[in-house]
Amino acid sequence: MNNAAKTIEVTVERIIPATPGDVFDAWLNPKIPGNPWNMADKLLLNPTVDGFFYWTVKSTPHYGRFTAVEKAARLQHTWMSPNTSGLESTVTVTFKAKGKDTVMTLVHSGLPDTDGGRSHGKGWNFFLDGFQSQLAKSGGV
Amino acid sequence: MEQLNDVLSAISHPTRRAIIRRLANGPARFLEIAEPFDVALNAITKHLKLLERAGLIEREKRGREVLISLRPKALRLVADWVHEYERFWNERLDEFEGYFKQQRSKKR
User: Fold this and answer.
1) Among A21, A66, A136, B89, whose CB has the most other CB atoms within 10 angstroms?
2) Which chain B residues touch A98 with a CB distance below 8 Å?
3) Bridge partners of A14?
4) Which residues of A touch B85 (CB under 8 A)?
């Protein structure tokens, strides 16, 4: 029996108008809109190496362990949710200065490449209706 | 595949994604689409041309008015292709970037 699941990697990049230090701090501050912690109904967050996070959106749990916390430079943690199908995926965020701005690159690797992971009709609605409202309906990703 | 490339390119910009979201609520006139954005009308025209080329929107003349509406079929190409987490992180980072842009414009 072959248990090896096919996985994929997602990369997203943005240029943020602030210094890497400010962007790094904001990414870990649950009060700042746009970071994943900001949307939690319940949140436990300990961003130190081997520290854990746990958050829920509409009772859907997401959890992981920080594996790298390099201030103003790099952040890495594992990420598990019902949509990772039991796989421990990895999120790596890097922050690089570009003039007065920061190039922020987020790589989410080890994601299961399954029909559940890919969107089909569900994802279509997800995209159009806007993230917040859809997330509330679907109970997280 | 060529259309998928056009669609992916068209939705790679947050303003164009916002336009798509607006049109998902129903057809709109040009100025209604442009109103929420703090950019030149010329820029909105360019965004709309890109969306039209990708087959994501269409224009329909009704009397003296031109209504712009979404052609969702093209987006289904992406729905079959893009991973759910790609959308999740794109939306998150759009919001995060938007927060910092707001902060910077407040300082000015």
Assistant:
1) B89
2) none
3) A104
4) 10, 83, 108, 111, 117, 141
Residues of chain A with C-beta less than 8 angstroms from the C-beta of B75: 124, 127-128
B73 vs B89: which has the higher pLDDT: B89
**Domains of chain B, earliest start first:** 2-80 (1.10.10.10)
Helix, strand, coil % in chain A, rounded to nearest 5: 25, 45, 35
Q: H/E/C letters for each residue in A4-37?
A: CCCEEEEEEEEEECCCHHHHHHHHCCCCCCCCHH
Q: Name which of A35, A104, A118 is nearest B84 (Cβ-Cβ).
A: A118
Does 3.40.50.920 match the CATH number of domain A8-112? no
Show me where the domains of chain A are located: 8-112
Note whether A49 contacts B: Cβ–Cβ < 8 A: no
Q: Note whether B36 contacts A: Cβ–Cβ < 8 A.
A: no
Q: DSSP secondary structure string, A113-128?
A: -STTTB-HHHHHHHHH
What ipTM is given for this predicted complex? 0.74
> With a threshold of 0.80, does the pTM exceed it?
no
| B19 pLDDT above the threshold of 50 | yes
Among all residues of chain A, which has the CA nearest to that of B101?
Answer: A17
What are A133's two structure tokens?
């409202």
Summarize pLDDT for A41-87 with one digit per residue, the tens. Answer: 999 999 999 999 999 987 889 999 999 999 999 999 999 988 787 88
